[in-house]
Amino acid sequence: MKLEYGRNGMRSFVTATLVAAVFSCTAFAGTVDWDQAMIRGTTPGGKIFFEPGEEMVFTLTLEGVKEPLPADTYFVDWERRGDDGLVEKGRLPLPLPKNGLVVKTEKPGFVCLEANVVTKDGKRVPKNHRWEKRVFFQGGAGVRPNEIPMATEPADYDAFWAACLKELDAVPMNAELKPVACKDKEVRLYAVRIPCSGPWPVTGYLTIPVKASKENRMPISANYRGASQDEQLPPEGGPHDRISMLINPNGYELGRGTEYVKNFFAEVSEKGYGYGMGPKGNARKETSYWKWCALRAIRYLQWIKSLPEWDGKELVISGGSQGDWQCYHAAAHVPGVTRMNGNGSWGGDWTGQAEHGRLRSTYRPTDWFPDMAYFDPVFAAKRITCPVNISFAGLGDYVSTPASLTLIYRNLKGPKQITYVQGSTHGWRPAGMQSQTVDGGWNAATKVLPTPPKDVPPGSAAPSCTNALNGKGVVSFGAAGRTSLVATGPVTQRTVFMVCRPRSGGAR
Question: Domains (ranges, CATH) in the chain?
């Protein structure tokens, strides 16, 4: 086992020892095919939060390999890193005896454990997958989430955004709606362009049910697309009981083709950087790409609320990753949002990563400038009072780090909920991973019960933990195919539980 040194030359005090945790694989005859393989990582009882210095036991299991693994050929290279700044690495052989890994940390924050199947020379075995072309586990656990230190909010945060909104108000909302042919004859489909302050407008596709009118008004579902440099294409239809719209974060013109979109991103990006990632733009908040991106999110809601077919009552916003980042800025500055559904919000806690040395997002500007703090959703969350559901916080997601989502959750002022998922990254979310949902009043406020994850393996039920995350209680999911209890609100002496029975065909 190889130990490395942490920051400031201090040897890691976190001991990674082989203990009685299972790491198994199945051997059969034939050439090794890795395309269906994965490493599953679990903790006893699905435990996610620990005390300082408490051992975090990870059981790792290689799945999906039907062929024999020749001796002294394949290995598992593992690395433990954490918000405490400490790093450890090691190598274990494949096939493995019944041994595993234990890590711990003394500080509030998260630990990330990554394990990759490699050849003897350290090269990762290849896998055919869009996002993760490797056979691996990446997950982790946390310590005292309520005590993770917050970053410092800019003193003139509200003044800056008040000036931005004034700038936005000076631009009339003279939207252009272009009808688009739609397969679904129950809705009207439009390509929409909404003027906005800054160099680019708001663009996206809107569907309005044919039966909607000033007399028959309907709710709104306002959706934000995540980061993508693929052209946004029109949908084939839309919901028949509500107005629905999806915008892209960037504001490029719709229907211009892939070559136009490719050129658009080349033009808006600093040379050698992805869009919004260059140091020139991020050095000053007034010139940042993210200022305009946030204002497009805000203008979108301002405009869609003006539709005569809206019922004036229900405005639900949803987004994932960079789209979720836009959601936070929109909900913080536009009144009337009744519910927000988020998924792996990107862009959070860059301020804290700079101030407290936490693990950095792997998709963010390389350079840090203090003006970037004005676009941190951790601070925007403090201005949001509507119910918010953070439906995915991957414990192995270091595009949207678990610490950043935890801090966003803590700052939200209204009913809220967050679901942590073990062994999941931004682009790798295999079925059946352990998960734990912390409910801070979301269920009671929205009367929406959480849905247990599909195909959760036996032994993965997460324990209730009333001391974690503001003492609001934890919803615990049992294994799929087994009867389990799910708390429908804060865990107290009067907690109401829902019985979850096996799905048809599930294991008994």
Answer: 7-143 (2.60.40.3880), 157-429 (3.40.50.1820)
CB neighbours of residue 426 within 10 Å? 22
Among residues 232, 230, 231, 264, the alpha carbon closest in space to that of 246 is found at 232
Q: In this structure, which amino acid lies at residue 31? A: T
Residues 6+ apart with CB under 8 A from 146: 108, 410, 468, 469, 470
* Tokens linked to 29: 């005859």
**DSSP string of 253-278?**
PTTS-HHHHHHHHHHHSPTTS-TT--
CA angle 275, 395, 110 (to 5 degrees): 100
Where is 188: in which H helix or E strand? strand 187-194
The residue count of the chain comes to 508
Kind plus residue range of the DSSP H or E element containing 162: helix 157-169
- Indicate the SS3 state at residue 157: helix
Helix (H, G, I), strand (E, B) or coil at 225: coil
Model pTM score: 0.83
Structure tokens at 118: 């490699």
Q: Where are the beta strands (DSSP E) in 248-347?
A: 310-320, 339-343
User: What are the residues facing 108 on neighbouring strands?
Assistant: none
Task: Find out whether 479 and 461 touch, Cβ atoms under 8 Å.
Answer: yes
50/357 Cα distance (integer angstroms): 21
Q: Distance between CA atoms of 435 and 461, rounded to whole angstroms?
A: 8
What gap in Å lies between CA 299 and CA 197, rounded to an integer? 9
pLDDT per residue of the chain (508 residues) written in tens, 0 to 9: 333 333 333 333 333 333 333 344 433 333 788 999 999 999 999 999 999 999 999 989 899 998 888 888 899 999 999 999 999 999 988 876 566 688 999 999 999 999 999 999 999 999 988 878 999 999 999 999 999 999 999 999 999 999 999 999 999 999 999 999 999 999 999 999 999 999 999 999 999 999 999 999 999 999 999 999 999 999 999 999 999 999 999 999 999 999 999 999 999 999 999 999 999 999 999 999 999 999 999 999 999 999 999 999 999 999 999 999 999 999 999 999 999 999 999 999 999 999 999 999 999 999 999 999 999 999 999 999 999 999 999 999 999 999 999 999 999 999 999 999 999 999 889 999 999 999 999 999 998 655 544 443 333 333 333 233 333 333 333 333 222 333 333 333 222 323 333 333 333 2
- For residue 50, give the nearest of 420, 440, 456 by alpha carbon: 420
Q: Mapping DSSP to helix (H, G, I), strand (E, B) and coil, where does residue 352 land?
A: helix
